[in-house]
Amino acid sequence: MDSDSRLDLEFAYTTYRDCCRDLYSPYYYCRRPLGHDGVHAAGFGSGRVRWEHRPDHAPHLLS
Q1: What is the pLDDT of residues 6-60, one digit of tens each?
Q2: Rounded to 5 degrees, what angle do the CA atoms 4, 15, 8 make?
Q3: What's the sign of the alpha-carbon dihedral 43, 49, 54, 57?
Q4: pTM of structure
Q5: Burial class (CB in 10 A: 0-12, 13-18, 19+), 10
Q6: Number of separate domains in the chain
Q7: Does residue 57 lie in a domain region?
Q8: Considering the domain boundaries, does residue 15 fall inside one?
């Protein structure tokens, strides 16, 4: 399974309450499960973005 397919499954089975929600922009927040390994990710298809959380950047969580 490629990484895009795996992310699609994670997004489909992770509720909003259980997703990471690290903020990439006002329009993209991490949809991976809380406590995930690796990069943050949001969006689908050609609109998908991935990003690393910078240690000097406090988490911006959507409540």
Answers
A1: 999 999 999 999 999 988 888 889 999 999 999 999 999 899 999 987 665 555 5
A2: 10
A3: negative
A4: 0.80
A5: middle
A6: 1
A7: no
A8: yes
